[in-house]
Amino acid sequence: MSKIILLDSIRSMQNVWAIFRNCDWAWFEKVILTWYCPTPPRNDISKTALWAQSWINWEYHKNPFDIIEQLKKEWYKIYSIELDKKSIDYRELFNKNEEKICLIMWNEVSWVNKKILDLSDEIIFIPMRWKKESLNVSVAAWIVMYAV
Q1: Which of 73, 77, 119, 140 has the smallest number of Cβ neighbours within 10 A?
Q2: How far is CA 139 from CA 29, 70, 75, 146, in A?
Q3: Do 125 and 27 meet the contact criterion of CB atoms below 8 Å apart?
Q4: 82 lies in which domain range?
Q5: 134 to each of 23, 51, 137, how far by Cα in Å?
Q6: How many other C-beta atoms can be found within 10 angstroms of the C-beta atom of residue 63?
Q7: SS3 6
Q8: Residue 81's closest CA among 115, 46, 53, 116?
Q9: What is the value of pTM for the model shown?
């Protein structure tokens, strides 16, 4: 199974580095960084990532649309995590044995780009119990990565 995560415009270095660490734990083989995501090497990475950026493959693409289209051509199933009319509960999805999975996460301030949702095979959400509708992006990534 090939598992990757694409981060779109996540500006917080701590969140990006925490997701690198999540990748190591969840056996995700690659992080794709786009738009405004900070990229290694940086002196402040190792504290949060615990050096995971040294062995987790990563690449940077300014434009997320081209790389998503490329991944689809390579038979990756694209899952965007977003609260949307078409979203389904993440717990309903990952009982299948898909060979290639790409999760897409973005910054917590602005919603995911509509074109990314259109390119996604599925839009999934994490149900919330109380009034908040979202989690910190690295926590949300961890929950869905665990499910995969």
Answers
A1: 73
A2: 18, 27, 27, 11
A3: no
A4: 2-147
A5: 21, 28, 8
A6: 10
A7: strand
A8: 116
A9: 0.89
Q: Taking a C-beta distance cutoff of 8 angstroms, is the pair 7, 143 a contact? A: no
CATH number of the domain enclosing 72: 3.40.1280.10
CB 79 within 8 A of CB 93: yes
pLDDT tens digits, one per residue of 96-122:
667 899 999 987 666 678 899 999 999
Omega of the bond leading into 64 within 30 degrees of 0 (cis): no
Give residue-wise pLDDT tens across range 68-81: 999 999 999 999 99
Is 7 exposed, middle or buried (CB count within 10 Å of its CB: 0-12, 13-18, 19+)?
Answer: buried
The Cα 32–Cα 126 span in angstroms is 22
**133-148 pLDDT, tens digit each:** 778 899 999 999 998 8
The number of folded domains in the chain is: 1
